[in-house]
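Lay summary. Proteins are chains of building blocks that fold into shapes, and those shapes determine what they do. In this project we predict the shape from the chain. Here is one chain we studied, written as its sequence of building blocks.
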Amino acid sequence: MTGQEAVCGEAGSFGNANHYLLIYWLLFIYLCLQMLDEMIELFSVLNQLEKGALGLFFEMNYLVGVILAIYITWFVVAIPAPTIPTELDENGKMLKFLKEAGISKENIANDYAQMHGWLYFHFVYLFISMILSLVVFFIYTTINSKLSVKESNSKEKAGKETAKVGQS
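And here is the predicted shape, written in a compact code that computers can read:
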């Protein structure tokens, strides 16, 4: 495998580098719209106004987030982290390209490792968020079941007291 294939994927395919570009553009769009949504929420709370129709647009941003989370999960699981081989490809094109651009192979490998690490962070964060969401769900379910048992006991007790008063 040549260095270019390790980063860009097979010839004629979408390519790993293009996946990185698409994921980072979607992350940029998602996080910017999320920030705007929070700013509009802050403005509407401070000024006691409604968010209006623009709020619905920003709620649609959650779909982008879900799709992006699925895409990142697929990418991290299906595509291994890129490795830049130290040897040259057959024609020496990679070395010529790098020398002309003034880039060392170590810099490219380090940059792609950082980009893949950031995506892996999002991958791990997704599962941590899911686990915490389940913990909160089970805590509220437990609280709700205890509360409903307590309410039914108090209703039975009130019913018995009403029956005693009715018999007297």
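What the prediction tells us: The chain has a mean pLDDT of 80.
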